[in-house]
Amino acid sequence: MIAGLILAASLIALLQFFIFYCRSVIASSSTQVLSVQTRDVTGIVDARVGGDDFDRILELVQLCPERREDRLPIRFIHAYYELLNLLRLTFARMFPDVGAWTERERGGCAYFAAVTLDHRIAFSRNLMAQQMSDHF
Amino acid sequence: MIVCALAKHSLRRYLPLGLYVGVRLLKSVIGVGVLTHYGFTSKEYMYYYYYGDALLTICLYFVVLHLFLHVFDEMGAERYLRFGASLLLAGTALFSYLAVHEANNKLMTRFVAEMSQNLYFVGLVLTYVLWGAMLKLRESRTQLVQLVLSLGIHFSAFAANYAVVNLRLHAGILVYLTQLIGIWLPAAWTYTLLRTPADARLVPARLATVVTHR
Known about the structure:
The structure holds two protein chains of two kinds.
Chain A: H1 2-29, H2 36-42, H3 54-63, H4 68-89, H5 91-94, H6 96-135
Helix pairs in contact in A: 1-4, 1-6, 2-6, 3-6, 4-6
Chain B: H1 2-7, H2 15-38, H3 43-71, H4 78-102, H5 108-136, H6 142-166, H7 174-195, H8 204-207
């Protein structure tokens, strides 16, 4: 009985903390400015990114050398993106406000992916420069 | 995480977090010794695993207290918080003693799983209270917000995990999930300290707002 109650309360809390955490990561990445290289690669013109671009940008992220510290947050944001897609397919049809909100959030996810790509490009460039300087 | 905190000059600010990760590392090193000496199925390894985990959870209470002190920094509530923490620790010890006292007839594995579930749930409640206080006090430090939220994910995931064990729901995915939850906290803290500038700010109330914000 107690275990059942704890399970239910923990799962509700987990979902809440998960959503808040993902939104805080997205909010902190939204203040970062993308480099010219990342803009060129992703085709992002201003800070507004369409939610549908998320998968495409994530594929570009996966082409870059992996960085251990951002592996887990990327998975979390990906899971959050899938949750938003689920909301979009279900509740958003009944409630238009939910539809607009999910679209904004999906755009935030895509911008987060672009910021991650930006970090990985900068990391790869530094790595290459370091290797070149070691070689010569 | 400790290396990142050192590199970003945050170790002093979040010392209990670094200490917790250090203790966790020590526990893992001891674990390798116990595992090679006694084996995976031994009673010794089981004692080490569950009681080590319970001790780590109590260490994590000190991390929560430290984060409480950060949030209530300007209110001068340090004395009350220390009193509250002492009360909580005494309460947890008493509860654990009563549980041990009552567990004479129970299977050892069942007792430790129940105790761990309760300890994690207390941690979850504390983190929830802390998050509520942060929303109420409009705490805007992004690093602090992310550290508290990652702690909330850790506590709630483990409490749910142990509750599933206690309910004897046979979920094969749990084995993999436990590993994922286990690496979550150090990974999330490392990410926060590395990626989020110490002076970054956000409005926590906006994180809790859905739809109405346009």
